Recover the amino acids of this structure.
């Protein structure tokens, strides 16, 4: 059901909207977690390392899909908030066409260059074949990834976070079962893991896209709807391109870091692969809530109610901090047992690596979560230069310090210590930019927008 985010108590509206989004991303992450879990438990440590190496390259493709998602979602949110339904429909069709073309180009590039990227990451010879096989199958499923992301972005723009949650709950559960069936039952190895993801994403994509188009038909509009608009594509690109660049550079940075991690051996790479999946579950959850805040901000700006943004930020901050508490406790106290979901051995280098990673990063979830909430406001207000400045600062600090600190310590421990530094500095920048945006909105609409300091 479509929901207007410009009416009602901002705190209640945002919590009701974002909680299903959090549930959705938990199930979305189960795709990757299930792949690593099945690979590590039923195939072996080399298979876990292979999926982990491939994962950083898949993040590049996910970056493009996510950029299309957020670009379409923010613009559709504004048009929905402004009740301009005719232009909103044209925006959706434009995003679908443009995303299809972009996806085709990426498939060609991916099939031609993934082997070189794996070698650039210093992938160990014993896992190279499995990594390449996983990626080849994954790339053929990119159309499902792209169109599914567009569909979920539209649902969010219309204020509906419940429908994507239901789709992901069903498809992620099916993915776990199919992973086990293909790997354990049919002995398909790493290929079974990839094919399970391919099939489940495909079904989710087709069903969600069909429902989105039905929702659009149910919204009555006058006259013929243009199926493509260069003007709307430009507006989408203003938000989408910086988001794509941000996510892509983060992926490239993570690949460089992965190369450094690989230099410490397969066991360290396997431990990191297990721990980073747990970490990404948290970060992606915060990012998704930030996306919900982007929709909230965009709808209210479109409706001419910028004063509600302050309350949205405060509600989002409380929400992510409520999530930080159980994640931090679980990773600090129960990290060993969570890592054993992916690893066969209860001792050794891989397990120690994963535990060190989680111990160092978990306390700083309270810091980075605030950045991602502030980033949601910046995207919703189309303040993309400020958003990119904070994000790239975090990335550059983490990459540079990863090499410097691991060189000084002679171990991967130095790499893990780079994360908190990057997160802390970037959070300060995002908060500074958020407050500037709020002051600008207050000045533009002094009668309806209270000061947005927090």
């Amino acid at each position: 059901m479509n929901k207007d985010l410009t009416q009602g108590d901002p705190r209640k509206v945002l919590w009701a909207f974002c909680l299903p989004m959090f549930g959705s991303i938990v199930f979305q992450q189960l795709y990757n977690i299930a792949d690593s879990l099945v690979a590590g438990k039923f195939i072996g440590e080399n298979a876990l390392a292979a999926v982990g190496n491939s994962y950083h390259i898949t993040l590049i493709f996910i970056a493009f899909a996510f950029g299309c998602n957020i670009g379409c979602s923010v613009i559709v949110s504004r048009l929905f908030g402004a009740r301009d339904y005719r232009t909103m429909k044209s925006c959706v069709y434009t995003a679908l066409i443009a995303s299809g073309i972009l996806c085709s180009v990426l498939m060609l590039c991916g099939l031609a260059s993934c082997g070189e990227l794996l070698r650039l990451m210093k992938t160990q010879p014993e896992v190279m074949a499995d990594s390449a096989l996983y990626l080849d199958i994954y790339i053929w499923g990119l159309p499902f990834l792209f169109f599914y992301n567009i569909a979920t972005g539209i649902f969010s723009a219309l204020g509906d976070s419940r429908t994507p949650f239901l789709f992901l709950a069903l498809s992620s559960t099916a993915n776990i079962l199919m992973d086990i069936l293909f790997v354990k039952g049919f002995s398909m190895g790493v290929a079974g893991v990839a094919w399970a993801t391919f099939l489940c994403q495909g079904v989710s994509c087709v069903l969600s896209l069909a429902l989105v188009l039905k929702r659009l038909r149910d919204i009555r509009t006058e006259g013929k709807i243009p199926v493509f608009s260069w003007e709307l594509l430009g507006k989408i690109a203003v938000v989408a391109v910086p988001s794509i660049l941000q996510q892509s550079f983060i992926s490239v940075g993570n690949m460089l870091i992965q190369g450094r991690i690989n230099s410490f051996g397969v066991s360290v790479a396997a431990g990191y692969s297990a721990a980073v999946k747990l970490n990404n579950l948290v970060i992606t959850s915060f990012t998704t809530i930030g996306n919900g805040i982007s929709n909230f901000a965009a709808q209210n700006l479109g409706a001419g109610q910028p004063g509600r943004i302050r309350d949205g930020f405060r509600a989002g901050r409380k929400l992510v901090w409520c999530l930080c508490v159980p994640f931090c406790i679980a990773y600090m106290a129960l990290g060993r047992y969570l890592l054993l979901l992916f690893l066969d051995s209860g001792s050794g280098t891989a397990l120690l690596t994963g535990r060190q990673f989680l111990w160092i990063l978990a306390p700083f979830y309270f810091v980075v979560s605030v950045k991602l909430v502030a980033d949601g406001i910046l995207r919703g207000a189309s303040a993309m230069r400020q958003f990119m400045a904070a994000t790239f600062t975090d990335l550059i600090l983490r990459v540079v310090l990863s090499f410097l600190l691991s060189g000084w310590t002679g171990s991967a421990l130095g790499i893990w210590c780079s994360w908190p530094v990057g997160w802390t500095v970037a959070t300060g920048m995002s908060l500074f930019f958020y407050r500037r945006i709020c002051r600008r909105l207050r000045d533009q609409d002094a009668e309806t927008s209270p000061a947005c300091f927090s």
